[in-house]
Design brief:
globular; MFS general substrate transporter; Growth Hormone, Chain: A
Length: about 600
Amino acid sequence: MTRIPFRKSTDITGAKEPKETLSGSAESKEARIKNIRIFVALLLPVFLETLDYTVVATAQSRIASDFDALSLQSWVGTSYLLTSAVFLPFFASIADVFGRHFGLQFSLLWFLVGSAISTGAQNMITMLVGRGVAGVGAAGLLTVVRTIMADSSSISANNWQQSGLFFLYAVGFSVGPVIGGYLIDVNFRWVFAINLPAAVVAMLSCAILLRGQVKKGKPLQQLPNSSKDRSTFIQKVLLLDWIGMLFFILGGILILLAFNWGPDDGWNTARVIVSLVVGVGLLSLFLFWEDRLRRIQLKSTSSTPTVFLAFRMLPLEIFRTFDMCVVQYCCFVSGIVMFVMFYFVAIFAVIVTGLPAAQAGIQLLYFAPGMGGGSWLTIAIIKRTKEPKFSIIPGSVLLPVSLGLIQMAMKQKNQGMVNGFMAMAGVGVGMTAGSLAVQGRFIEPDHIAIVSALMLFFRTLGGTVGLAQCFTVMDSKVKSYVFDQIQAGALSPSDLAALVSLYSSQGGGLSSLTSLDGLPSDVQTIIRDAYRYGVAWSFVSLIPWAGIAAPMSFFLTSIKKKDDPKETQGREEADHDEGRLGDDNTGSAERIEMTSRTHSAFH
């Protein structure tokens, strides 16, 4: 196959280029203006989602206390995280079937309603319902924004857009806790109320700047005997993969709940076991259903029931390439590092080094500049090489190295070294995040929306698995260290009694910092050393995950090899003519397969 230079068009609308083009400079200027217009329109939705998560995370203890439900404080974040994860593929289908602009407005509407419910909540249950609804909107914002960015067929445009987007997320994670602290001092309801005018402004700005500038929905003529030129809204709703969505959402929620409960329950309670078993069963049914749809659609006729003509939520064929498996696994590892870093460095700073909570939060800021720096490095590398793998590879190598150095610094009880190596880990995450999005976009150009959604889902799943693993390892190592100290007999009888009482009480360990401060000094030393030992081993347990990703990244293929002119031309023609697909219900396997996919052309 003849290799040609990769084309450098920067249009991110997905529209077909006119045959009569402007001059090169004028066309380039017009494309840049259009790209900037779209990027500006997406700024507020990005900040809205990022700030909401980080601001509420800061305020959830105060929120739960005001409702006299402190035991439910973790659910303020958990209810949001669950829905924002499992609804990601759903919004990929919405973006494909109904169009990017509709998907974004639909997401903002869900986010607005959820924030309004939480703002006016009079009890904790209503608050959690509002957080869950807002999480659905957040899933849409994450998916649709990433999809719009990835619609460009230009490596350069994808490079700065995806890396710039991740840089914005890094900024949001940095300033969110600060904003949350100020808002909670006024009234906790402002944490949610501030989203209401912001969401309205975002909806208006997107309507003005994005309408007609981004890809429209597919005209789906897959209903039997359909002779209309354009599908109606109801037809499109009926063609969504509702059965697959139900299996995926319910199965995903149960598995994420199991990982959330597991560390506290010791992984042996009925709710954990049942959630895992039923969740895995539902996801297995989901995969079976998606494969069944694919097989039936290849042989469909005019008499095929409508339910089997659904627009598949997850085309399983996207996993046929090694590259896609590597990209999704690397996103999984990236999520592990991001989530664990924010939680466990704070535990180390507060319990081990004894920093106040406010100062401990400041230590986390070292990670965010690292992510920002990694994002800018990615932009420079891809700009020069036109290959995202040259950013993915060093970023993937940095992650296991930085995790090893962080655990070494923790064992030495050196907060300064921890901060420095945490910034190194941030660079690794920053170098992989944007470049993985670019690599994934060019691996499966016909499935941009679902690939973007899956990368986000695996990142969230990685964070959930990583936290569950690290909490389990930490609790085990802390108890082991404490019991070893008790058996060593180095404590006075009074100190020994205090330590035994602590681990004989309900919960079997440290319940709060107040209980730690109330212990004798020698016992405090043992507890702090136990957590130093436990948190360090938590980071050690993550090294195999990251260690596998590093060598796998070396085998990523060149995206330039995918720039085949015949394939590109075929996709452009299919995208241009997709409104005519399905007029002839002859059951042609090739035609049915084309109409069951999203077409996203190289322009």
